[in-house]
Amino acid sequence: MNAMDKNIEESFEKFGGLYAWSTSIFILQLLALTWFTGRIRVRTQTIHSEEDKVWMKNEKITLCVSGGGHPDVDRIRSIHFNDLALIIIWLFIIPFWLLTSPEYTTAFVIMNLFLISKIFHTVLYFKLIVSPIFLKITAITCYVLIIIVSVYSIYCYY
């Protein structure tokens, strides 16, 4: 076994559980947003395809092929798109960063900080709690952590 394979194996042993935990939380969050989208569409009687009429009991249905059609539906779609944009990038960058063998404490703090910031950002985006400053802080935290991890990964590989 050469040194590169050994490094990959050690990184997987060291950080595999941490990565699996954060990944599973993010996937559950995205699945929950899918469920919330469906519930909001049923509540507002807003559908995006003719086939969805089967699920509606009311005759007054709004058909919006572009996907929106109601402010609540537009908001949940925006939340979901934002989460997909950030979480997918995060899930692809983190394995490369973990291969650079950061300290476990550093990896633990950065990964959990991103996880907590992203969850708070999603909840604040729902407008359950009106706090624009915290919404901006959580968004900035997520972007800064992605930039830090990306730059560190690139720096370590060159």
UniProtKB/TrEMBL annotation:
Q: Which UniProt keywords apply?
A: Endoplasmic reticulum, Membrane, Transmembrane, Transmembrane helix
Q: Which residues cross the membrane?
A: 18-36, 84-100, 106-126, 133-155
Membrane-related topology note = Multi-pass membrane protein
Entry's localization field = Endoplasmic reticulum membrane
Where is this protein chiefly located?
endoplasmic reticulum
Task: Tell me which species this is from.
Answer: Cotesia typhae
KW Ribosomal protein (keyword) present:
no
Q: What is this protein called?
A: Glutathione transferase
CC annotations in GO: endoplasmic reticulum membrane
